[in-house]
Amino acid sequence: MYKGAIKSRKKRKEKKREVFAMVAEFVPVQELGKSLKEVPKNYIAPEDKIPVVNEPGKSVPVVDLCDFDLSPEQHERVVHEIATASSEWGFFQVINHGIDVAKPQKASRDFFELPKEEKLKYAAKEYGFKSDGYGSKISNADDAVQLWRDFLFLCTSPKRNLDNWPAQPPEYKEAMSGLADDFLMLAKKVLGFLSEGVGLPTDYFEKCFGIPNQSILTNYYPGCPEPDKVLGFMPHSDFGGLTLLLQDGVPGLQVLKNNTWVVVEPIPGAITINISDLLELMSNGRYRSVIHRVQVNASRPRMSIACNYSCSFDSGVAPAPELIDEEHPQLYKPVKFGDYVQEVVKKGPTGKSYMLINHDSKPEYMLFQKH
Ligand code: OGA
Ligand code: NI
């Protein structure tokens, strides 16, 4: 056997050992939360002095989709409300969307309530959301602040490998696959409203994305003995195109607006939708991908199901030429989605500046600094 082959076999063996070590050392936060009175040091988040607003009347707009039985006037209202919310907040909630959310929510909660040993059968083999799996840490770096959260990540489009998905509870695969299909349809409809909202043909943004890359990230935030010291999700904007999210009845998600954290009110059955980075770029900044985070609480576990709709990693995206003129100069440069994701993973929330043309003219919502 020649040297190269021996070397690469050795490498593969090492890699296998590494993967094995990662899975073995993974302690779900759900287990930590049961026994501790104080949070471990590596979970303590940097202090943040931005005030929190928690008043339903001051939260993100709610849009009634009337089960898509829309008269021309109602259609116009929906387009207007979604476009306004997406430029002022980057977030909105939809009600009467016609999707059964109870089944996937119950199946997901039942998964997280299984014994640790059963869940660990599905432990993610790699960091960085590259493949299906259950996990908690997103990085193995010594100085990385760990999140007070466990997750289950599923790739849902263009391919679904149902063999990797949890076999327990028995209805899990069907419920989540159904949700992925429903979310693909809803995302396409919302992209239609968003295209019309900036005066473009209905299928404009959908065509820009091409064959969608879709994934579902179920986040489970256990109760925490010192909730003010940790974060369930660090401040970030989503790097895909559009995010559809199911909250349960427990508040926790907060959106940055005028330098305050605004709590996204949990409305039973509603779907929270937010513009993500690629759509901000494609719309030349008309729609905003806004920073958000998740706080946890002392006693009530919280679960969310976040579904990301974007393009394939080797596709390029660019601002719509129709949305560039004298009044609206081009703010972003074309990027290859895969390169962009790498940049964001490397640099954190400020990785987003990679797509800006003029680095001196960062819009205020891109200037988020950790305090
Ligand atoms: C996300 C996210 C919010 C939540 O998954 O990107 O921001 O409420 N989740 O869990
Ligand atoms: Ni997010």
TrEMBL record:
Protein name: 2-oxoglutarate-iron(II)-dependent oxygenase
Pfam families (UniProt xref): 2OG-FeII_Oxy, DIOX_N
Limits of the Fe2OG dioxygenase domain: 212-313
Coiled coil: none
GO molecular function: metal ion binding; oxidoreductase activity
Organism phylogeny: Eukaryota, Viridiplantae, Streptophyta, Embryophyta, Tracheophyta
UniProt cross-references to InterPro entries, sorted A to Z: DIOX_N (IPR026992), IPNS-like_FE2OG_OXY (IPR044861), IPNS-like_sf (IPR027443), Oxoglu/Fe-dep_dioxygenase_dom (IPR005123), Plant_2OG-oxidoreductases (IPR050295)
PANTHER family the UniProt entry points to: OXOGLUTARATE/IRON-DEPENDENT DIOXYGENASE
Keywords carried by this UniProt record: Iron, Metal-binding, Oxidoreductase
Stated family: Belongs to the iron/ascorbate-dependent oxidoreductase family.
